[in-house]
């Protein structure tokens, strides 16, 4: 059974190879091609203070996450006992 005419794939008035609003069409993307940037470019774009490792800040993020998880668990328990 074929799809109805309104559901058939269309080009929406565009032609092959023509850019829409100045952007390349998705079909022109080649996932096997090398990216247009190097890893060094990405690392150079990140500020130097982001590369400094701080164990106390990392531990504070872990504790913050545990506090949020615990608060969600308490809220779920309270909400469950309130609705039943």
UniProtKB/TrEMBL annotation:
InterPro entries: FAS_N, Fatty_acid_desaturase. Residues 19-73 form the Fatty acid desaturase N-terminal domain. Keywords: Fatty acid biosynthesis, Fatty acid metabolism, Lipid biosynthesis, Lipid metabolism, Oxidoreductase. One of its GO terms (biological process) is fatty acid biosynthetic process. GO terms for cellular component: membrane. One of its GO terms (molecular function) is oxidoreductase activity, acting on paired donors, with oxidation of a pair of donors resulting in the reduction of molecular oxygen to two molecules of water. The keyword Ligase does not apply. It comes from the Eukaryota. The keyword Magnesium does not apply. Belongs to the fatty acid desaturase type 1 family. This is Truncated fatty acid desaturase 3A. It comes from Linum usitatissimum (Flax). The lineage of its organism: Eukaryota, Viridiplantae, Streptophyta, Embryophyta, Tracheophyta.
């Amino acid at each position: 059974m074929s799809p109805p005419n309104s559901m058939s794939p269309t080009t929406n008035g565009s032609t092959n190879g023509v850019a829409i609003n100045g952007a390349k069409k998705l079909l022109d993307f080649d996932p096997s091609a090398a990216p247009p940037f190097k890893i060094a470019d990405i690392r150079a774009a990140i500020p130097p203070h982001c590369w400094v490792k701080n164990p106390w800040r990392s531990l504070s993020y872990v504790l913050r996450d545990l506090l949020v998880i615990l608060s969600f668990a308490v809220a779920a328990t309270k909400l469950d006992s309130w609705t039943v």
